[in-house]
Design a protein that fits this description.
By secondary structure, the protein is of the alpha/beta class. The chain has a single domain, classed as Uracil-DNA Glycosylase, subunit E (3-Layer(aba) Sandwich). The chain contains nine helices and six strands; from the N terminus they run H-E-E-H-H-E-H-E-H-H-E-E-H-H-H. Strand 5 and strand 6 form a beta hairpin. Helix 1 packs antiparallel against helix 4. The N and C termini lie far apart (37 Å). Bound molecules: uracil (URA).
Length: 198
Amino acid sequence: MSALAELCEEIATCRDCELAGHRTKVVPGEGAEDADLLFIGEAPGWHEDQQGRPFVGPAGQFLDQLLASIGLRREQVYIANVIKCRPPQNREPLPAEIETCRRWLDRQIEIIQPRMIITLGRYSLARYFANESISKIHGKPREAGGVILYPMYHPAAALHQGSLRPIIETDMLKIPQILSETGESPQRATEPQQLSLF
Ligand code: URA
């Protein structure tokens, strides 16, 4: 078994915080162990909690479309969350839960060694860009310790606020160029697809 698969099995047994008592399934993350791109969301929602997989609800469908727009499928990137269990009633993750869960994401990043970390939404943003506002820094890459950090709005934001949708799409489309400026482009499985409305 790969180091990442072993780690995900370990994550799936975690009972380090009280979210363990509320979850249906742990959602460790999924994708390629050698992914160039690591997307970090917030926390599993209802659909993710049912299936044990990240971004499989409406926000996930949009994320899949965004990936397709740069010629990628989710199996070619890695998708994880700041916290691995769904907070009850989808409430916001508590600082203590984020802190307790932090070691899992740290270890995932150590194994995957992505070239680019894309933060989706406020909680993953805060991990790297404390006290900065997403409206100012989205779509602007920064280099830190050999990794490109790239803040984006959370895909779910477009579901609530339609005006963010083209902004998110544009930010996603910049990713191949940013990667190619710092090395090779991510391997394409398919031709980029037109984004369609859901
Ligand atoms: N939103 C997230 O932040 N993560 C998921 O896995 C699903 C929705």
